[in-house]
């Protein structure tokens, strides 16, 4: 399958589905840099990878979650976990925490997950979108997840060192990442503290 976009020169360009990172209510969201792939300036692997800083944050969060969340109760998935919400809505998650009761082994298949994660972490916006539209996209994705049944969505924005913390039926908050965030069961996350611990290790 391919999608069609109209360029300024009124020419039609075919966009392969492989360049779609997410889809919400039938609207495709393309990987950041997809136009460079279409113009043969970059390859698909060139635009699908994360930066060193983004990967570092994923590592910090993953280590923290592995240490603090009971293995018998939760699964922690990384590497752009795919979530099928409904027809026309398919999302990717940088880190997703699932309750084992909702995602037992027999529901782990070669396809996207089809149950809501308990917690989702997103590190930066990785789709091709104008900067002024990024908040609208983050809002749409976050609302989709919370309506689906996710209990906590945290966006980690590396450039401003800021978090967007969102829970259902609560006010969302932008906070600096040196502030504490209660994940669950009195488990407190502080990204600045995790980074400081890494600096001490050298």
H/E topology pattern = EEEEHHHEEEHEEEEEH
Distance between the termini: 48 Å
Number of helices: 5
Instruction: Evaluate the radius of gyration.
Output: 18 Å
* Helix content class: 25-40%
Could you give the count of β-strands? 12
Question: Low-confidence spans: pLDDT under 50, at least 5 residues?
Answer: 4-12
Indicate the mean pLDDT. Answer: 92
Structural class label: alpha+beta
Q: Order the strands across the largest sheet as they lie in space.
A: 5-6-7-8-9-10
How would the global form be characterised? globular
Provide key terms for this protein.
single chain, 202 residues, alpha+beta, six-stranded mixed sheet, two-stranded antiparallel sheet, 5 helices, 12 strands, 26% helix, 35% strand, globular
Structure description:
The protein has five helices and twelve strands. The protein has helices at residues 34-38, 44-48, 52-68, 134-148, 191-201; strands at 2-6, 12-16, 20-24, 27-30, 74-86, 89-99, 119-123, 152-157, 162-166, 173-176, 181-184, 187-189. The longest helix is centred in the first third of the chain and has 17 residues, at 52-68. The protein starts with a strand and ends with a helix. The model is unreliable at 4-12 (pLDDT under 50).
Question: How are the elements arranged and paired?
Answer:
Elements: E1 2-6, E2 12-16, E3 20-24, E4 27-30, H1 34-38, H2 44-48, H3 52-68, E5 74-86, E6 89-99, E7 119-123, H4 134-148, E8 152-157, E9 162-166, E10 173-176, E11 181-184, E12 187-189, H5 191-201
């Amino acid at each position: 399958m391919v999608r069609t976009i109209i360029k300024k020169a009124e020419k039609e360009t075919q966009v392969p589905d492989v360049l779609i990172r997410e889809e919400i209510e039938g609207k495709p969201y393309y990987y950041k840099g997809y136009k460079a792939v279409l113009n043969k300036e970059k390859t698909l692997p060139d635009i699908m990878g994360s930066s060193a800083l983004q990967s570092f944050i994923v590592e910090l969060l993953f280590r923290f979650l592995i240490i603090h969340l009971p293995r018998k109760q939760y699964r922690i998935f990384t590497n752009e976990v795919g979530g099928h919400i409904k027809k026309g809505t398919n999302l990717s998650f940088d880190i997703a925490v699932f309750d084992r009761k909702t995602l037992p082994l027999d529901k782990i298949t070669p396809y996207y997950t089809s149950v809501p994660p308990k917690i989702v972490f997103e590190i930066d916006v990785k789709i091709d979108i104008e900067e002024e539209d990024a908040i609208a996209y983050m809002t749409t994705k976050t609302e989709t997840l919370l309506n689906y049944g996710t209990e906590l969505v945290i966006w980690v924005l590396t450039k401003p060192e800021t978090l967007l913390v969102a829970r259902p039926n609560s006010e969302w908050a932008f906070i600096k990442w040196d502030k504490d965030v209660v994940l669950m069961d009195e488990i407190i996350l502080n990204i600045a503290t995790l980074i400081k611990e890494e600096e001490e290790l050298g």
